[in-house]
Amino acid sequence: MKRGFTEFLKKKALRFLILQYYRKQPKDQITEEIREVVEYLKRRPVNIFPYNFKDKYKVGDIDVKLDSKLNLYYVMMDGKRLYYKNGLNKLKTRKYFKALITEQDPLSPHLYLTDTFNVEENQIVVDIGAADGNFGLSIIEKVSKLYLFEPQKSWHKALQATFKPWEDKVEIVSKMVSNENSENSVSLDQYFSEKTKPDFIKIDVEGFEKKVIMGSRKIFEDKRKIKLAICTYHKQDDFDNLSLFFKNEGFSTSSSRGFMIFRKAIKKPYLRRGILRVWK
After folding, report:
1. pLDDT one digit per residue (tens) for the chain, 280 residues
2. Phi, psi (5° rounding) for residue 67?
3. Residue 90: inside a domain, yes or no?
4. Does residue 126 sit in the same domain as residue 218?
């Protein structure tokens, strides 16, 4: 009870700070996207997704099944089985999948792909920070090759089960992707030094996105056409810094719709872009 009350007070204090900050900003600097978040916070508590779209997803609506042979829970996603790792009970699996489908809602700031920014047929795709593999599963039928980088080995049994129908074109790599090469980490430049370079890279690595990019410079130079979907909400300045880097390298960039309120190391101006989309 005490922990829950403390969390409530922290959220309330943050809500006050955000509203106070934007109340003091010149009106001509308050864009329609910012105004939408401010209006939400006037009525509701702080949430990582400060939008009403999240309300349509309910934990109780998610159907979780047990594969008794593998002793793993799974959910159906677009007619395909998405397995979850050992240690997640049925309720935790529901919560995990609810968070997943919420963040990939068409109105979400965390949305990787759109109708105009997508994976194309027969492309080579790299998913860095694969976790349950939901991103890879969403595009598996159109790709020619899928590389899943996931250093947490607790996910590997579930990933193998999910992608078994396509195991001939899926490679699961248990290393962390970085700008260094060691027993536990590898750069994309090193990993693809003797392989065909990827056409699409998705990066979600809890704030270490810059290291992944710094270890991929040769790929950007060698591959004329390439797309990247990069999570930028883990750090306040990642969107601006990484946008500038790619623009200087001759890439085009855009952001996902809206903002996220990610509370780790949060500071002014509080709102963060969720996804940086990059292409050449």
Report:
1. 567 778 888 999 999 999 999 999 999 999 999 999 999 999 999 999 999 999 999 999 999 999 999 999 999 999 999 999 998 999 999 999 999 999 999 999 999 999 999 999 999 999 999 999 999 999 999 999 999 999 999 999 999 999 999 999 999 999 999 999 999 999 999 999 999 999 999 999 999 999 999 999 999 987 779 999 999 999 999 999 999 999 999 999 999 999 999 999 999 999 999 999 999 9
2. -90, 105
3. no
4. yes
Amino acid at 92: K
Q: Does residue 269 have a cis bond before it (omega within 30 degrees)?
A: yes
4: left (phi over 0), alpha (psi -120 to 50) or beta: alpha
Q: What is the DSSP letter of 195?
A: S
Omega cis (within 30) before 165 = no
- Owning domain of residue 41: 2-46
What are 238's two structure tokens? Answer: 């990642």
Which of these, 135, 156, 31, lies nearest to 86 by C-alpha position? 156
CB 16 within 8 A of CB 64: no
For residue 131, which of 155, 111, 112 has the smallest C-alpha distance? 155
Please, what's the b/e burial string for 257-276 (b: 16 or more CB within 10 A of its CB; e: otherwise)?
A: bbbbbbeeeeeeebbbbbbb
20, amino acid identity: Q
Residues 16 and 128 occupy one common structural domain: no
Q: DSSP label at 273?
A: -
pTM: 0.95
- Angle of helix 32-43 relative to helix 2-23, nearest 10 degrees? 140
H-run or E-run covering 241: helix 238-248
Residues 113 and 227 in one domain: yes
Residue length of the chain = 280
